[in-house]
Amino acid sequence: MLRSCTAGLRSLWALRGRREGAARLSADLQPARRLFSTEKAVHKDWALPNPSWSKDLKLLFDQFMKKCEDGSWERLPSCKHTCTYKSEDFKTYFLDPQLVEGEGLSQAQLFTRGFEDGLGFEYVIFNNNDEKRTVCLFQGGPYLQGIPGFLHGGAIATMIDVAFGSCAAISGGAVMTANLNINFKRPVPLCSVVVIHSQLDKLEGRKLFVSCNVRSVDEKTLYSEATGLFIKLDPKKSST
Ligand SMILES: CC/C=C\C/C=C\C/C=C\CCCCCCCC(=O)SCCNC(=O)CCNC(=O)[C@H](O)C(C)(C)COP(=O)(O)OP(=O)(O)OC[C@H]1O[C@@H](n2cnc3c(N)ncnc32)[C@H](O)[C@@H]1OP(=O)(O)O
C-alpha cells in the first residue's frame, strides 16, 4: 500500500504547477438548488474530474453521472468564490456591510477548494432529493496528511461537515453547523478515495439532524461514522 501511495504522491506532485485546464464550467446546473447556483456570472465548477482524479474516483463519478440520467440523482456544482458570501440568502444573516463587502472577504474562497488540483480536497457531491440523502466522493491529497501516510482527522471532519452542510442546505436553505460528532474507526490512507453517505434523519422546526458513514470504495471498510445538527438560520436574528 505504501508503494502505491508513494506512486500516487509522485504523480500528484507532478501535477503541481500544471496550469488549470480549460474551465470546468457547469453545463448542468439543473434544479441543483438555488443555494448552489446563485451567482449571476458563470463560474468554474470544481466538482468535475481533473487530471489528479484517480481511476477509482473517475469510475465512481461516471457511475453516479449515469444515475443522474433519470433525474433521481443530481450532481451538485461547486464553486470556489462568492457563492456563499454573494448569496442573497447569506447576506440576510450577515448583516454587517463591512463584513460582507470588506477587503478580507474579497479574497475569500471556500476552504476545501483552496488547494491546487490533487493536493487537497478533491470531491463531488450527488444528491437524491426524494430520499433526502447525498453521496460525497472524496479523494484526500498529500497536503491533508496527519499521521504519516494517512489523512488528518480534521480533514475528514471538514469533508463530513461539507457533505452534511450540503445535505442539510438542500432541505433547510441557509443553515449552519451547530454540532458534529465523529467516531473515527479506521485511518484513511492518503490519496485513497472514500465515499461519504449522508442522510437527513429528522427535521424538527429549525433543527436538521443528519448522519453519515465514510466507507472505502469497495464498501468493506467503515472508516468513520458521524452525526450532525444543523440549524436553519433565523432571518430575524443577526449571526454576527
Ligand atoms: C452549511 C452550508 C449552507 C449553505 C450552502 C451554501 C452554499 C453551498 C456552498 C458550499 C457548501 C459548503 C458547506 C460548508 C459547510 C460548513 C458549515 C460550517 O462550517 S458552519 C460554521 C460552524 N458553525 C458555526 O459557526 C455556528 C455557530 N453557532 C451559531 O451561529 C448559532 O449557535 C446557530 C447554530 C446559528 C444557532 O443559533 P440561533 O440563535 O439561530 O438558534 P438557537 O435559538 O440558539 O437554537 C435553535 C435550536 O437549536 C438548538 N441548538 C442550537 N445549538 C445546538 C447545539 N449545539 N446542540 C444541540 N441543540 C442546539 C437550540 O437548543 C434550539 O432548540 P429549541 O429550543 O428546541 O428550538
UniProtKB/TrEMBL annotation:
Q: What domain of life is recorded for the organism?
A: Eukaryota
Which SUPFAM superfamilies does the record associate with it? Thioesterase/thiol ester dehydrase-isomerase
One of the GO biological process terms: apoptotic process
Q: What UniProt keywords are attached to this protein's entry?
A: Apoptosis, Cell membrane, Cell projection, Cytoplasm, Fatty acid metabolism, Hydrolase, Lipid metabolism, Membrane, Mitochondrion, Mitochondrion inner membrane, Transit peptide
InterPro entries (alphabetical): HotDog_dom_sf, THEM4/THEM5_acyl-CoA_thioest, Thioestr_dom
Q: Which coarse location class describes where this protein primarily resides?
A: membrane
Task: Write out the GO MF terms.
Answer: hydrolase activity
Localization in the cell:
Cell projection, Ruffle membrane; Cytoplasm; Mitochondrion inner membrane; Mitochondrion intermembrane space
Membership in a protein family: Belongs to the THEM4/THEM5 thioesterase family.
Q: What is this protein called?
A: Acyl-coenzyme A thioesterase THEM4
Give me the reactions it catalyses.
hexadecanoyl-CoA + H2O = hexadecanoate + CoA + H(+); octanoyl-CoA + H2O = octanoate + CoA + H(+); decanoyl-CoA + H2O = decanoate + CoA + H(+); (9Z)-octadecenoyl-CoA + H2O = (9Z)-octadecenoate + CoA + H(+)
Q: What is its EC number?
A: 3.1.2.2
A GO CC annotation recorded here is: ruffle membrane
Domain named Thioesterase: which ranges?
149-221
Q: How does it sit in the membrane?
A: Peripheral membrane protein
